[in-house]
């Protein structure tokens, strides 16, 4: 793990006994070492005994005798060069540390930096080893521990060297700090700590990077850590690779990749768990709260604080060693056998997992599974992570990662100089060509012909007595003369109703109508709304297989007499959209894409609906019809327009936002749900959450409630099942009569086929008298019933290599569902859990599923943590250093103090802030300045290079001719805004407050806005003329 925390101050504490504790190891076969005074340390020192030291505390020495700090710097003592502020590898002197923290030269006391009101003394970079490394250290003898501590220090030094050499720390100078330079001299005090707050072995280092540097010209100043924060992934990977290299070379153990981290082969996982008491406490509490700690680090940190022990609880080092020995024996090991197992695993080549793909190939597969555009920092960081466990030196890994930038499998999109900047973005030629083909098909199929005569369209519209003008216009646009048409609508506007009208007109014209969508649930909805028979509807993946595979037993042969309606098209990735448009273009079938680019984005790479919309235009309806209450319709309108503040404030003012903590919050949601069930048993309702873990916890609570209410009866029978989601986990699922289930994949159940997202009620469940195998009767919402042995449910998909997949089937209780799976659903009332934060798209979808009412349940504890962490990022934390050069600074997982106490107003502001954040999916086409030329270039490389050349010509023209009138107006607005912001800040002097003249500022702003609007109007008019000219020339 690697983290970065700002430090606001460094305080000084005299500490007199920790050096005596330093050598108090008490390991078998070793003698206690004399300290610097020739004193053998006492063995009875207890945590919390302050008799002969003043305020030394947990982070200073853990009560267990941590070593003094060691300086790192990139500067060396060389003739003709300025003498370094510190000497690399020397022991940290507390006076030097305090001086540098205060921005003073430790030798001359000269001031090195200009202090502002909020001077930041530095940054605490924390490097934590994987638990298996800490277990080995705890089991090691004196020599083995010394080696591991030295390897840890060298790995941290390697990461710090990487930070400096790659310009991830910069210093600003010149007017307004616009000149950014890589410092010539940086320094950090590094402090090794070896235990966690729970007294478990935990190797981690605090590297305090001080906020002072020397520039190449000899001047001094402060540092900027913005780039470091952006590149945390690769810095952490560099540290771990260097750690692996040292451990394998010097100790003969073997490391294997473990997700984004690594572990030492042969170290028992049970021992790792045994020595992860803090982690176990956090995970147990998180499981109770329904939180995935891997995804929600803020929530994990909050739980960390709530579950930690007292500072005064830690024993001495000797007592810790005795405890560790006892716990090792409890797991059936000895310290010696742990090392024997690790070394034996190295000798056993078959025990080491192998991967035939290179680290670059693995990284590329991982990155392109969800994104089209890859940032340079993510490319390098992910490749370095995949180098773990390949016995590569850290330098070889870096060289390989850097060389990948020039791979033929990637095309750089910005045209920036790779030697001068890290502001680079890449895409694969395959993805670029898919996007280009999508654009070409959309353009070529413009004005292709008429599928439905105008009179039939108007006749179908006339039949719908309640259809609005904008819905009618959407029908006309859907059935226009283009081979591909896009219709969009905000949530609850009646898109499906309008598409039903379009489908009716198409059938009246003698055309065959097909409906498809990314999920079975969405297919069911659109099939019902368009009155389409089940034989003419299919989930998108199945539909594509049937139209593209000539050998498919359910082959669909499209012709120009077919209309394909695709609902929830905004959730389709680039690959499937490309296949759909390519195959339909071959046959001339009409394609109507329906969706909303403002709702949830596809999990797959790309945002093709937005790409097509930008290329050929769209027809959008905005009048909300779903919500029955006027203020809720207006709030949905605000969410659709991105006006999150107005929408959230509306729900808050009507007491629809419930604020509480953890389990108490879930209890309130469940009580409200139960009250609703009792009041309206036949009504429809949804309980929504953002993640599958949150849904799992809610399902358990709701199921217990429904059992108490008598809606679930009989004994529970447990079956094997796999959870839904991208990272499914195997476990047991309790079934009883009345249970509601949702399936996560297509399976065969007797003569019936169960689809992904199908829901069912358990009508009966028992065990077979012969062998005890569970037998269930399931009544599916799609209208069929199945009685089957659970083991006879057969997965239709195959595993890699086309072998049968022997894992349990994906199924779970369906009392709560994720927001993602609920897109397109419509119910009477919804209950939305906001336990981990909701971005713009999640908030929009989650708060627009209802017709009658909706409540948002928000965890105030998490908000308090966010407020506290924002305060820490702004103000920093305090570190303390002893006279022995030992450090006290909060660990990343054990920050001091609980989250800030927050009131309702603060919670609402945080909901608004999170709801204004958007997870926009990028397209390679976003980098193009001439979409037509880009799409019709000969190859992907030609397309990108041609676009880069056009950008350079445009930039050169701007340099020669100056900015356009529109750009000058925009610059004037920006300049005014900057000036107004400065004026608006209250200047305090002599006890007086001076404020800006609001009327003058307003008049100046309005004048600038009018000028900008007029300039934009002229620029747009010119652009339309140029486009019209190009159209005529074509």
Shape: globular
* Class from helix and strand fractions: alpha/beta
Rg from alpha-carbon coordinates:
32 Å
Please tally the β strands and state the result.
Answer: 39
Strand % is 15-25%
Instruction: Measure the end-to-end span.
Output: 57 Å
Helix content: 40-55%
Report mean pLDDT, rounded to a whole number. Answer: 82
Note the total helix count.
35
Main beta sheet strand tally, sense and closure = 7 strands, mixed
What is the topology, as strand order, of the major beta sheet? 2-6-7-3-1-36-37
Low-confidence stretches: 12-63, 293-312, 983-997, 1030-1034
Architecture blueprint of SSEs:
Layout: E1 2-13, H1 18-22, H2 58-61, E2 70-73, H3 94-101, E3 122-128, H4 131-139, H5 142-165, E4 171-173, E5 179-181, E6 187-195, E7 201-210, E8 213-214, E9 220-221, H6 226-230, H7 232-251, E10 255-258, E11 261-264, H8 269-274, H9 277-289, H10 297-307, H11 317-330, H12 335-347, H13 359-368, E12 374-375, H14 376-386, H15 394-403, E13 411-412, E14 425-427, H16 429-444, H17 454-463, H18 469-478, E15 484-489, H19 495-508, E16 512-517, H20 520-529, E17 537-539, H21 540-548, E18 562-566, H22 574-587, E19 590-595, H23 608-616, E20 619-621, H24 630-640, H25 644-653, E21 657-660, H26 662-679, E22 685-689, H27 692-708, E23 713-722, E24 730-737, E25 740-743, E26 747-749, E27 752-754, E28 759-767, E29 774-780, E30 785-789, E31 794-795, E32 811-813, E33 816-818, H28 819-822, E34 827-834, H29 840-846, E35 850-859, H30 860-875, E36 877-882, E37 887-888, H31 904-915, H32 931-935, H33 940-961, H34 965-984, E38 987-989, E39 992-994, H35 998-1033
Parallel strand pairs: 1-36, 15-19, 15-20, 16-17, 16-18, 18-19, 21-35, 22-33, 22-34, 34-35
Antiparallel strand pairs: 1-3, 2-6, 3-7, 4-5, 6-7, 8-9, 10-11, 12-14, 13-14, 23-24, 25-28, 25-32, 26-27, 26-31, 28-29, 29-30, 36-37, 38-39
Helix pairs in contact: 5-7, 7-14, 9-10, 10-30, 13-14, 14-15, 16-22, 16-23, 17-19, 18-19, 21-22, 24-25, 25-31, 26-27, 34-35
């Amino acid at each position: 793990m690697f983290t970065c925390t700002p430090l606001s101050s460094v305080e000084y504490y005299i500490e007199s006994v920790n050096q005596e504790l330093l050598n108090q190891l008490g390991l078998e076969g070793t003698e206690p070492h004399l300290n610097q005074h020739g004193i053998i340390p006492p063995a009875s020192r207890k945590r919390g005994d302050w008799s002969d030291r003043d305020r030394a505390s947990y982070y200073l020495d853990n009560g267990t005798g941590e070593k003094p700090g060691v300086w790192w710097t990139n500067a060396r003592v060389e003739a003709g060069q300025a003498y370094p502020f510190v000497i690399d590898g020397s022991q940290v002197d507390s006076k030097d540390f305090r001086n540098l923290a205060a921005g003073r030269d430790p030798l001359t006391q000269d001031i090195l930096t200009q202090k502002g009101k909020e001077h930041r003394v530095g940054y605490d970079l924390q490097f934590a080893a994987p638990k298996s490394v800490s277990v080995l250290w705890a089991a090691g003898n004196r020599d083995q521990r010394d080696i591991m501590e030295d390897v840890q220090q060298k790995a941290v030094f390697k990461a710090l060297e990487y930070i400096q050499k790659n310009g991830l720390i910069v210093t600003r100078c010149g007017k307004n700090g616009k000149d950014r330079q890589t410092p010539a001299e940086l320094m950090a005090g590094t402090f090794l700590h070896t235990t966690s707050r729970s007294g478990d072995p935990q190797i981690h280092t605090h590297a305090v990077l001080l906020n002072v540097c020397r520039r190449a010209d000899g001047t001094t100043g402060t540092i900027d850590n913005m780039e470091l924060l952006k590149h945390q992934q690769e810095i952490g990977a560099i540290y771990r690779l260097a750690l692996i290299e040292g451990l394998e070379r010097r100790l003969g153990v073997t490391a294997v990749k473990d997700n984004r981290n690594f572990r030492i082969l042969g170290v028992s996982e049970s021992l790792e768990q045994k020595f992860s008491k803090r982690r176990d406490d956090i995970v147990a509490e998180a499981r109770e709260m329904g939180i995935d700690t891997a995804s929600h680090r803020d929530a994990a940190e909050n739980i960390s604080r709530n579950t930690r022990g007292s500072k005064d609880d830690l024993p001495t080092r000797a007592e810790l060693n005795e405890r560790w020995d006892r716990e090792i024996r409890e797991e059936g090991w000895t310290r010696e056998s742990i090392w024997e197992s690790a070394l034996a695993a190295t000798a056993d080549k078959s025990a080491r997992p192998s991967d035939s793909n290179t680290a670059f190939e693995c990284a590329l597969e991982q990155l392109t599974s969800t994104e089209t555009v890859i940032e340079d920092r993510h490319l390098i960081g992910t490749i370095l992570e995949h180098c773990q466990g390949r016995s590569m030196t850290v330098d070889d890994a870096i060289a390989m990662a850097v060389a990948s930038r020039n791979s033929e499998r990637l095309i750089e999109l910005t045209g920036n100089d790779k030697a001068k900047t890290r502001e680079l973005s890449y895409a694969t030629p395959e993805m670029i060509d898919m996007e280009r083909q999508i654009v070409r098909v959309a353009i070529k199929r413009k004005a292709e012909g008429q599928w439905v005569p105008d009179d039939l369209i108007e006749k179908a519209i006339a039949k719908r007595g309640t259809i609005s003008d904008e819905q009618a216009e959407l029908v006309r646009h859907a059935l226009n003369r283009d081979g591909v048409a896009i219709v969009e609508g905000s949530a609850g506007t009646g898109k499906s109703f309008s598409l039903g009208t379009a489908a009716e007109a198409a059938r009246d014209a003698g055309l065959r109508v097909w409906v498809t969508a990314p999920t079975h649930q969405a297919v069911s909805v659109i099939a019902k709304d368009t009155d389409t028979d089940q034989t003419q509807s299919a989930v998108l993946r199945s539909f594509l297989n049937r139209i593209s595979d000539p050998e498919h037993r359910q082959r669909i042969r499209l012709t120009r007499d077919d209309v394909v309606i695709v609902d929830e098209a905004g959730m389709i990735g680039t690959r499937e959209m490309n296949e759909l448009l390519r195959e339909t273009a071959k046959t001339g079938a009409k394609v109507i894409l329906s969706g909303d680019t403002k709702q949830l984005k596809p999990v797959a790479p790309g945002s093709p609906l937005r790409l097509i919309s930008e290329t050929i235009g769209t027809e959008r309806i905005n009048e909300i019809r779903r919500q029955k209450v006027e203020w809720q319709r207006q709030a949905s309108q605000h969410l659709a327009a991105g006006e999150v503040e107005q929408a959230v404030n509306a729900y808050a003012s009507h007491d629809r936002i419930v604020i509480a903590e953890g389990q108490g919050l879930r209890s309130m949601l469940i009580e409200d749900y139960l009250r609703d069930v009792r009041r309206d048993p036949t009504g429809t309702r949804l309980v929504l959450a953002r993640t599958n873990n949150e849904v799992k916890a809610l399902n358990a609570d709701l199921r217990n409630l429904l059992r108490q209410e008598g809606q679930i009866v009989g004994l529970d029978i447990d079956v094997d099942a796999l959870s839904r989601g991208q990272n499914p986990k195997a476990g047991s699922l309790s079934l009883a009569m009345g249970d509601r289930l949702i399936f996560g994949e297509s399976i065969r159940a007797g003569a019936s086929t169960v689809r992904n997202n199908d829901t069912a009620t358990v009508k009966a469940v028992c065990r077979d008298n012969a062998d005890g195998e569970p037998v269930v009767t399931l009544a599916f919402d799609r209208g069929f019933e199945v009685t089957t042995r659970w083991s006879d449910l057969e997965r239709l998909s195959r595993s890699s290599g086309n072998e049968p997949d022997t894992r349990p089937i994906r199924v779970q209780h369906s009392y709560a569902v994720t927001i993602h799976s609920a897109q397109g659903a419509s119910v009477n009332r919804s209950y939305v859990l906001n336990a981990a934060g909701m971005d713009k798209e999640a908030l929009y979808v989650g708060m627009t599923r209802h017709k009658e009412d909706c409540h948002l349940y928000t965890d105030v504890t998490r908000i308090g943590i966010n407020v506290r962490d924002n305060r820490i990022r702004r103000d920093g934390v305090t570190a303390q250093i002893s006279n022995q050069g030992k450090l006290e600074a909060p660990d990343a997982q054990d920050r001091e103090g609980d989250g800030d106490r927050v009131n309702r107003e603060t919670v609402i502001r945080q909901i608004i802030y999170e709801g204004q954040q958007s997870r926009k999916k990028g397209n390679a086409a976003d980098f193009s300045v001439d979409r037509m030329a880009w799409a019709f270039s000969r190859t992907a490389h030609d397309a990108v290079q041609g676009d880069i050349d056009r950008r350079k010509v445009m930039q050169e023209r701007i340099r020669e001719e100056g900015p356009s009138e529109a750009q000058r107006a925009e610059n004037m607005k920006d300049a005014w805004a900057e000036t107004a912001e400065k004026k608006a800040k209250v200047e305090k002097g002599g006890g007086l407050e001076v404020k800006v003249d609001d009327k003058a500022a307003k008049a100046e702003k309005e004048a600038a806005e009018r000028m900008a609007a007029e300039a934009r109007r002229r620029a747009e008019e010119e652009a339309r003329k140029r486009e019209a000219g190009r159209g005529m020339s074509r």
